[in-house]
Amino acid sequence: MAASKYNARDVEFEVENFASPGTWVAIRTAQGGSGEGGINTFSVGHEYETTDTTTFASEGRAESQNMQEGKTLTLEGFRLKDKVTGALDPGMALIEAQAARLGEDSLVGFRFAAPGDTNWTVWPDAHFQLGDSGGGNNDKVAWACTVTRSGPETTAAKS
Asked: CB of 148 within 8 A of CB of 91?
């Protein structure tokens, strides 16, 4: 089969519930929820730390090596609240609570998968930082967070 493009809106995201380890809660996109999803943009970021390996033998040409690699995933979209109860969308509420946790408690699992993937990409230890929230006169309220991987990633079969 030839490789083909896929829709960003069809990527799935889940956060592990810190109060119930091993329980995963969806962060809803339009396709991955009840048809009303908050997330409408995501981006995966890569960062590298290098070390200088230049010596006199380099003859004036810089030399270096990657020594550390990091990953982040930013989610952005609209803040979702239940009109009757005022409760925040379960995935967003969990991320907001997790972002307030500190130290060892700040780490929890996060996973994502593209359409057709049979495995999740899992960040067993990740921490969350909330982005700006708000809007203008004719806007829906925005919501954003950045997920930062701590340590290596792994995979897990999708059920």
From this structure: no
